[in-house]
Structures are given as C-alpha cells and as structure tokens.
Amino acid sequence: MQNIKKTVWRHKRRIYFLVGLTLLLGLAIIVQAFLMTRIVDGVFLKNLSFSAVTSPILALFIILLIRALTDYMSKRIGVSIASDVKRDVRKDLLTKYAQQPVQLAEKGQTGKKVSMLLDGVDEMDSFYSQFIPQVMQSTFVPLLVMIVIFTQHINSGIILLVSAPFIPIFMIVIGIQTQKKSEEKLEKLASFSGAFLDTLQGLVTLKLFGRTKKQKDELEQSSLGFRDTTMDILKVAFTQSFALELISMISIGIVALELAIQLIIYESISFFTAFVILILVPEFFTSLKELGTTFHNGRSSMGAAKKVLQEFDEQDDSIQWGKNEMAQEEVPPTIQLNHLSFTYPTSDFKLHNMDATFLPKQKIAIVGASGSGKTTLLHLLAGMITPDEGAINVQQQDLVTFTEASWLNQLSYISQHPYIFSGTIGENIAMGTTAAVDEKAIREAAEKAGIAPLIESLENQYQTKIGEAGRGLSSGEKQRVSIARAFLKKPTIVLLDEPTRGLDLATEKILQQSIEQLNETATVITVAHRLHTIKTADQILFLENGQLQAVGTHSTLFDTLPAYREMVTIQRGGKQA
Amino acid sequence: MSALQKVIKLMLIEKKDIVIAICLGFIAGISSVGLFAASGYLISKAALIPPFYALIVLTSTVKLLGFVKAGAKYGERLYSHRATFTILSNLRVTFFEKLEPLVPHVFHKYRSGDLLGRVVGDVESLQNFFLRVFYPPIVLLLVFVSTIFFVSFYSLAIAVILLLGFLLTTIVIPALFSLRQVKINGRVRQERGDLSTEITEVMYGFRDLKLFQQLDTKQNQLLSQSETYINEQKQENINKVYSQSFNGFITFIVSWFVLAIGAYLVVNGTLEGIFLAMLVMISLTVFEPAAPMAVFPIYIQESRDASNRLYDVVDEPDIQPSETNISINHLPDVPPGLAFSDIRFTYKGEWRTTIPNLSLLLPAGSKTAIVGASGSGKSTLLQLILKMQQVEAGQVYWDQHDTLTVSGSAIWEQTKVVLQENHFFYGTIRDNLLLADPGLQDDQMNAVLASVQLENFSLDTRVSENGENLSGGEKQRLAIARALLKKGHLWLLDEPTSSLDAQTEQSIYQQIFNQADQDTLLLVSHRLQGLEQMDQIIVMNHGEIIESGSYQELMELEGYFYQMKTLEESLL
Ligand SMILES: Nc1ncnc2c1ncn2[C@@H]1O[C@H](COP(=O)(O)OP(=O)(O)OP(=O)(O)O)[C@@H](O)[C@H]1O
Ligand SMILES: Nc1ncnc2c1ncn2[C@@H]1O[C@H](COP(=O)(O)OP(=O)(O)OP(=O)(O)O)[C@@H](O)[C@H]1O
Ligand SMILES: [Mg+2]
Ligand SMILES: [Mg+2]
C-alpha cells in the first residue's frame, strides 16, 4: 500500500459502476431541462391546454426520481469504498506499528501514533467518499451538458468552452497549496495529541512544579496553531470558491444576455432553446463548482493519506529473525556471548566486545553502576535489540537464526519498568504466558511473588480491577504482580531486572526463595544491586561503562578486582559510615 | 444545564462572528434566489420582445446579484468557520482546564487514551454542530420567509406550495428522520473513544506485550474494534447520504409541483405566463440548501453525544475534589513543621481503609525516615501531605495551618518532591530541568547534573516520552536533580535511589543532606543502612505506625525494626 492510486484501483469494479451511474445522472439532468422547458414553453408561449402537458409533467417526475436515485447510489458507493480503504490502511498501519522493534516503538510520542491511526485514517475518508464520486460527476455531467448546448446553440457553447477551462486551472493551482497545508494540519493535530497525552501523564509532576499554567498555555498555543492551519486551508478553499462563483456568474450572465439578444434582435432562436440552455448552464457550473468544494476536501484528505502512507516508508530496521525452530527442551540451552557489541543509534553509549558463557541452570548476576549497560545487555539477550557486532549464540547457533516466537517461548523477562494494564489483577498475571491458565495457577504464581496475601485480602481478590499503568496498587505491589508473570510460565531462561527493587526485606526473602526454585529448571540472569543476590551467583558479570570488566564468582572478583571490592565494601561499610 | 447547552454557552463568546455569518448567509441566499429569478424573468421577457433598455437593466441586475452572492458566500464561510474553529480550540483548552484539578482521581474512572479521544475526536466532531446545526437553519428560515413573501405577490398558490415545501423539507422530514435516528442510536463516538483507549494502552505496554507474545492477540482485538468503528461510521454515513438524497428528492418534487401547478394556473389564466419560468427557477434555487436539513438529526445526535462525552468526565461526581474553603495561598519560605493528628484515609472507591488512624509529628528542620512493608501506606502519607488525596477524618497541619485551608499550589511551591515513579516529558534534559524553575541558567543546571553524576549528559540530550531512553537509575537521578533545583524547604523523597548502586546512592544522599541541612525532610526507604543519621524513624505496617524513635532507640527496643535490620545484615 504505497500510494493513493493503488488504493483506488483495488476497487475497480465499483469505480466502473460509479461511471455508469454518473452517465445516467448526466442524462437525467439533460432530459429534465428539456421536459421543464417543454412545459413552460407549452403553457407560456404555445398556449397549450393543461392536458397537453400532463405527460411531460409525469415524465419529469420519473426523471427526478432517477436523479435522486443515481445520486444516492453513487454517494453510497463512495462511502463503501471509503470504508474499505480505511479498514485496509488502518490494518496495515497497525501491523506496521506492531512489528516495530521496541526501540523504534519507544521513539516518538504515543499520542501522535494514536492520532495517525485514528484521525489520519479517518481524514482519508472524504477523498474516497466524496472526492472520487464528485470528480466523476464533474467530468461527465459538464461534458454531456456542453455537447447538448452545442447542438442547441453554438454561441452559448463557445462561451462555456472559453470560460470553463479557467476552473480546472484554478483548482489545480489551489489544490496543490491545500494539500501541503493539510499535511501540516494533520501534523499539528498529531502533535497536539502527543502533547496532550504527555501532559496528562505528567500532570502530577506539573502540579508539583507549579507548571500547569504554562503547560495549559502551551496546549492552547498548540490548539490555536491547529485552528490557524485549518483556517489557512479553508481560506484557500473559500477564495477558490469565490473565484469559481465569479467565473460562473459572469458566464451565466453572458449566456443569458447572449440568449436575450438572439431572441429579440435577431430572433434567431426560440424561447425553447433559450430556456433549455438557461437551465442547463447552471447545472454545468454547479457540478464544476462542487468539484471546487470537494476538491479542497479531497486534496486535504489526500494530504492526510499521504502523511499516513508515509508512515509506511519510514525505514525500519526491524530485527531479521530466522526460520529455525529452537528445540523446546527441558534443559535450558547454553548461551554464549561472542564479542558482543552494541550502540544505541541515538546516544554515545556503547556496549563493548563482551564474551561470556552461561551454562544451563546457572545463576548469573549482572552488576555495575547505574548506566553501565545492564538493562541493555538484558534487552540484547531477549532479542529486543540486535548486536552491532558479535553475536549471542544459543545451542551453538546465532540467536537470530531462530524464530522470534521460539526464543520468546523459552524466556521470561521481567523488565525494569514493567507495564501493568488496566483490567483485573488476575488478567495481568495471566498475560505471562500464552497458554490457557486457571485460577489455581495464577494463585500459585502470586504466592511465589509474595503478592498473594495482599490480593487475597481484597474484596474481589484476583478479579480486583486496577487502572491503567497499575493505578490503585503501590509500587512494590505492581512490581510483584509483574514478577508473578514469570512464575506462571515454565521458562528455561529467566531475565530479571532488579526484581527486588522497592521491596521490603521480608518480601524480598520470599521472592529470593521463589527465584531459587525457578533456578532449579532454568538459567536465571539477574541484574542486581544487592550484595546477597550477587554473592550466591555462579557467575558475576561486572560492567563498567559498557565494558565487561570481569566475569567470575564473588570470591574471585573480590580478590582480583579492586572496583568490585570497593563496591562490596561500600555496601557493607554503609553501616560504619 | 445539559452538556449541549454548555457548549452553546461557550460558543456564544464568538457572538460577533456568528451574527456576521448569519447576515452574510442571508444575503448570499437571497441574492442567489434573486439571481435565478431575474434570469428566468429575463428570458421570458426577451421572448416577448421588449424594449432593449429593459433587457439591459435585467442583465445588470443578474450580474450584480451574482457578484453580491459570491462575495457574501465568501464572507459567510470565512466568518462561520473562523468562529467554529475558535470555538473548538476554546473547548479543548476549557476541557483541559477542568480536567486539571481532577488529576489524579480522574484516572480511577478514565484511561488516558479515552481522555485523548474525547479532547481530540469529540471536540473535532462538534464542528458540525456549529456549521450544520446551529446557524444554517436560521439562514434558511430568513431566506425562505423573504422568498415566500416575494412569491406571494405573483401567485398565492405557489407561495403556499413553497411554504408547504419548506415545512416538509426543513421540519417534517428532519423530524421523521430524527425519530428514526433515536432508534438507530449511533455509537460512532463511543466506538471511536474505545478504540483510542485501547490503542493508547497497547502503545504504552508495547514492550511487555511483545515480550509475553501477546501482541498478536491485542492486534486482532484492535482490528476487530476498528472494524466495529468503521462499520458504525459507514452505517452513519449511509444514513446521512440516504437522508440527504431523500430530502433532495422531496425538494425536486416541490419544484415539480410548482411547475405543474404553475402551468395549470397559466392555462387557467390566473398566473401570467411570463412569471412561470421565474417561479420555477426560484423553486429550484431556494430548496438547494434545504436538502442537507435531513441530516440535521444525525448531527444533533452526534453533537449531543460528543458534548456529553466531554462533560461526563469533568462533571463526574465521583472524582470531584472535595470543596474546602481555602484561605492561605502562600506559605512562608521557611522549613515547616508537619503534624498528622488522628487521620483516617481510604482511597476513593476502595473498601479497605488504607490508613485507619495515624498521628505523627515532624518538627521543623527534622529529618525523618519512614520504613515498612510494601503497601503499608508510606507513599499514601506523602500524597496526603501534598493534598493529592484528602483525609477522611483528622487533620494534617503545616505549621499551625490545617492543610484543608491551604491551597495545593502553596504547598507544592514549598516542597521538593521525588516520587517513586517520576514523569519525564518528551523533549530535552533542559526542558525537563527547567520545570523546576524557568529562570535557571545552563551552568546551574550543569552543576546539578554533575552533582548527581550525570555529567555525561548534555542539556540538549533528547528525552523520549516517559524517559524511555534513560536507564532506571538515570531517571531517578534526573528526578533528584530536578528536586535539587527547585525552591522550597520541605523534602519529600519516596525511595529516590531504589535503582541506584550503593556507591552512587551514597554520594547522592550526601548531596541531598548537605542541601537540606536546615530543611524538613521526609524519606521513604527500604534500605535500612544509613538511617543512623536520621532524627526519627517511623516504622509502618498496614497503615499504622508500629514503632518510632531514633535508630538507637529502635535497635534497643528490639522490635520490628531490629528484626528487619538483623535480616538485612544476615543477607549481606
Ligand atoms: N490510587 C490508589 N487507589 C486505591 N488504592 C491504592 C491506591 N494507591 C495505593 N493504594 C493501596 O493503598 C495501599 C498503600 O499504598 P502505598 O502506595 O501507600 O504503599 P507504600 O507503602 O508506598 O508501598 P510501596 O513500598 O510498595 O511503595 C496499598 O495496599 C495499595 O494497594
Ligand atoms: N533506548 C535508548 N536509546 C538511547 N540510549 C539509551 C537507551 N536506553 C538506554 N540508553 C543509554 O544507555 C546507557 C546504558 O543504559 P542501561 O539502561 O543499560 O543502564 P543500566 O546499567 O541498566 O542502568 P540502571 O542501573 O540505572 O538501570 C545509559 O547511558 C542510557 O542513557
Ligand atoms: Mg537498568
Ligand atoms: Mg510507595
């Protein structure tokens, strides 16, 4: 789905149908004019009796019905094409967003993306539902009308032929402007959405810093900016309508005058011809003018479409996973870090050349100062980001040769900032696994995470509703709910990023025991600040500024690495200070 | 007052533009009717071979009317749209203004994506209210009344047909459609809101959804929601098209009647033939703007839904902050003493009492630590001091003032807060630090960054939404830096260093305590190390204070604190 034309041609059949309808409409308009004239002419000049005009009057009724019907049908087709296009585009865009690697997903503002998916896609509507049917009408109806007028009276035809081309020229010039502006408009709406959502999330912070007023002003600016861009677009459109209106008025006036002169002075045409033309000429201009109105709608909608479709062009180096299925064995695989290096595209931080081997069921601790790259290493292990150089080998093969699903199936990763969804506590724990789970399993997992007593003290227990981002739970409670997710699955590799952060010692102890239990069947890799987690590890990875300083057990590192020794002393020595 | 009335009230601020738009709309409408009438008359007249000057007068009238119409239409559009979009912009800002005091309570009931949907989508849809519901009927009425008045000079019968046609197309048929509309009860607004809510949360929880392989399920869910939304939209659009075409047909029929009756009258001799063409042209023109009136009920309902959805949130009784009479809007710039006396607190909508009864004294300039199990109410206590939540019973005192009488902003002005979870705004480090004080100089900020060991960051470093590109510890340090830069003499620190390694933690505490030397400080902590230097340690459990005293006293007491300390030591 790269361009707008393609989106239209997907619906070829309906487009042809639309053409047919439009031709019918054009014919109806012409027949209507003739019938009306016959009636007026008949009673006004020819002094016919009323019964002589009853059949044209009845025929006129049928023609009007046809006109209303074709109008309805063609608009309806427009609506249904628009719905289909919106459905497809939204689906593709959503898929695109969903396949983004996490790193890209974190880029940009959530509100903007939401705005693209909703407002952007919705804006595309009028291009298909109004613009396309109108383009057809404005092409065929004037053409038919013009032909008929030429057959009736050449001079009037020439007047139209001279003035009509101004209209499309105007529209093209102005349409280009509109489209640019409307891309800008959608952009503004999206940034308003982005800013609003960000402000909403941070409103407590803003209050604490006494900045709500300022933020309100900014939102106001943003909202006014959106208004101004919208008005700019509309002004263009209105000026265009004004010009069209003038052109058509002048031509209608000239035609009318021409007809009058021909009627009186030369007596070269009949009233019949004159009146037919007089009814047809406004129809000619009306459908062109309507194109003018929808043209701006269509153009701005095209702007939106272009903006939305641009999202697809956004290059994404999504991770190229392979096709191999990883054998799902009881025993955890051996994991090797092989000259592993990684840099974030947007920061200077670099993880250097790491080498390590994690044997099955080992307990690994990753240690290092804040910002030294511990979380980054876990992200790499989870396959959320890919190494720039070197590789992670699992079962002697590069991780990326496997499918993503088969790796994630083995894995439980409780990240540093797990997200709790709105819903019940039970649902939040249950999302730890793709398998179906019963209440009992959830309860067990909660117990292991040390959160069961709390949940069970609540009125609705596991059915207790919590808000977005876990509102309604204390921070430690949220932490434990997310850890429970890991206990639900039977993973062979467990990645934990500071699991005991913000927990009291008693709870921490429960958790330690449960993690030990996990360790019986899985390799557990933990980022830890606490000495007691570190001390018992089979291997400690000591990171400093993205460099792996040393790998070893507590006693070897303590003896050989001064930085490590210092860290331990500070943890112990805190009490002497 | 219904929500729609509130919207109208807001709209009326733009009175002037509205009146101008109506006047210009009338001029445009009437001159267009005049234009077509005159051209119809012109042709008929010409057929009778009149004197030439009569034709000149007529054609000039036609042209003049044409110019007037074009100009008036331009003005009408400009003014009506300008008014509309200003109204929408005001509406958004008003909504935010009303929402602000409701935070954080509003999140009990509404999710952010939902609120976003309302402030963008629903407000946007209200443009139809003004552009299609509010003023066009007025213009239409004026044009019709004048036209019918004009026509009545030529033929009463045709004036009556026009009148009937007017009643039919602008009142009877829209009324019938509105009966139908009540039954259909479009859910477009609702569906859009739901979709916005879900999409937003999926984006927020993207990483976890991906890690736990739930993304496919969620995506399908979203797609089926989008499907429902699109179908609702489609249904509504088809409805609109149907109503409009139907009413369009009726207007054709009215013209048809005018023609038929007119012809009959001419044959009869009651109407002069020369006026027939004019009357037909009039009826064709005057009804042109009447056709959209059939869509009126759909727009009314849409607008009502949209405005209800806006005002439902801000008028929601469950989340209104309790009314208090605030008499103090500024607090003295000195370290305060705080006191809780017999407070009780329950979160809104919760059945268990978080803090059953608690009294506590924090003397001015003292340093207090709160320790206790997770979920024991430590953060809640800070929320109460900050007036983010309000006590059910008892008082919280700021010096001698009951905080009920002190405005929230006065308290916030005097406190430096690091919450357990801190928000960072999309922008740069500088943007985020400037929150503390817009007057800060770069070197001041750089110095503070260095003091929290973030010297490797430049002020121009980008911060992603929610600080996603910062490590856990960096976020905490940035939050501390922000607090260090802020003015105030009360420090409220809720586990400010939980993600930091011991080394960094120590040096940062040193910074804080140096700066807070004279100030009152309240620290929530899980680590018991380093609490020796605190004046007072409070041990909480289940919302109650179970022990309190200095480090020494608590150790001697050999109670809960002593046990925790022993546990901690055994783990080292
Ligand atoms: N917004 C809320 N609505 C309802 N209940 C809440 C809300 N916030 C917290 N609670 C509940 O109130 C209790 C106290 O929460 P609080 O956040 O004060 O705990 P805490 O002592 O700070 O714990 P932690 O050490 O985990 O941060 C918890 O059991 C929690 O579930
Ligand atoms: N998404 C990202 N984009 C750019 N830079 C990042 C991103 N995530 C982290 N960084 C940077 O990479 C460095 C390492 O971050 P990482 O999260 O791995 O640290 P950490 O060791 O986990 O620290 P902490 O203990 O504080 O959580 C930091 O300097 C951080 O600013
Ligand atoms: Mg980290
Ligand atoms: Mg807390």
UniProtKB/TrEMBL annotation, chain A:
The ABC transporter domain extends over 335-570
**Keyword line:** ATP-binding, Membrane, Nucleotide-binding, Transmembrane, Transmembrane helix
Q: Which Gene3D superfamilies match?
A: ABC transporter type 1, transmembrane domain, P-loop containing nucleotide triphosphate hydrolases
- Topology term for the membrane: Multi-pass membrane protein
Query: Where in or outside the cell?
Result: Cell membrane
- Xref: InterPro entries: AAA+_ATPase, ABC1_TM_dom, ABC1_TM_sf, ABC_transporter-like_ATP-bd, ABC_transporter-like_CS, ABC_transptr_CydD, P-loop_NTPase, Type_1_exporter
Q: Where are the transmembrane segments?
A: 15-36, 48-66, 157-176, 236-257, 263-281
Q: List the SUPFAM superfamilies hit by this protein, alphabetically.
A: ABC transporter transmembrane region, P-loop containing nucleoside triphosphate hydrolases
Primary location group: membrane
Q: Which SMART domains match?
A: AAA (SM00382)
- State the Pfam families in the record: ABC_membrane (PF00664), ABC_tran (PF00005)
| Presence of the UniProt keyword S-adenosyl-L-methionine in the record | no
ABC transmembrane type-1 domain residues are 17-300
Q: Which NCBIfam families match?
A: CydD
The protein's name is Thiol reductant ABC exporter subunit CydD
Q: What is the source species?
A: Aquibacillus rhizosphaerae
What taxonomic classification does the UniProt entry list for its organism? Answer: Bacteria, Bacillati, Bacillota, Bacilli, Bacillales
UniProtKB/TrEMBL annotation, chain B:
Output the Pfam families linked to this UniProt entry: ABC_membrane, ABC_tran
How does it sit in the bilayer?
Answer: Multi-pass membrane protein
Which keywords appear in this protein's UniProt record, sorted alphabetically? ATP-binding, Membrane, Nucleotide-binding, Transmembrane, Transmembrane helix
The answer on whether this UniProt entry bears the keyword Lipid biosynthesis reads: no
InterPro entries per the record? AAA+_ATPase, ABC1_TM_dom, ABC1_TM_sf, ABC_CydC/D, ABC_transporter-like_ATP-bd, ABC_transporter-like_CS, P-loop_NTPase, Type_1_exporter
Gene3D superfamilies in alphabetical order: ABC transporter type 1, transmembrane domain (1.20.1560.10), P-loop containing nucleotide triphosphate hydrolases (3.40.50.300)
Q: Which SUPFAM superfamilies does the protein's record reference?
A: ABC transporter transmembrane region, P-loop containing nucleoside triphosphate hydrolases
- Looking at the UniProt entry, the stretches that span the membrane are 18-43, 49-68, 133-151, 157-179, 246-267, 273-300
Every ABC transporter domain range: 338-567
- Its domain of life reads Bacteria
Recorded hits in PROSITE patterns, A to Z, give: ABC_TM1F, ABC_TRANSPORTER_1, ABC_TRANSPORTER_2
Chain ranges of the ABC transmembrane type-1 domain = 19-302
Where located? Cell membrane
Q: Which CDD domains is this protein grouped with? A: ABC_6TM_CydC (cd18585), ABCC_MRP_Like (cd03228)
The record, for PANTHER family, names: ATP-BINDING CASSETTE SUB-FAMILY B MEMBER 10, MITOCHONDRIAL (PTHR43394:SF1), ATP-DEPENDENT PERMEASE MDL1, MITOCHONDRIAL (PTHR43394)
What protein is this chain from? Thiol reductant ABC exporter subunit CydC
- According to its UniProt entry, this protein's organism is Aquibacillus rhizosphaerae
User: Lineage of the source organism?
Assistant: Bacteria, Bacillati, Bacillota, Bacilli, Bacillales
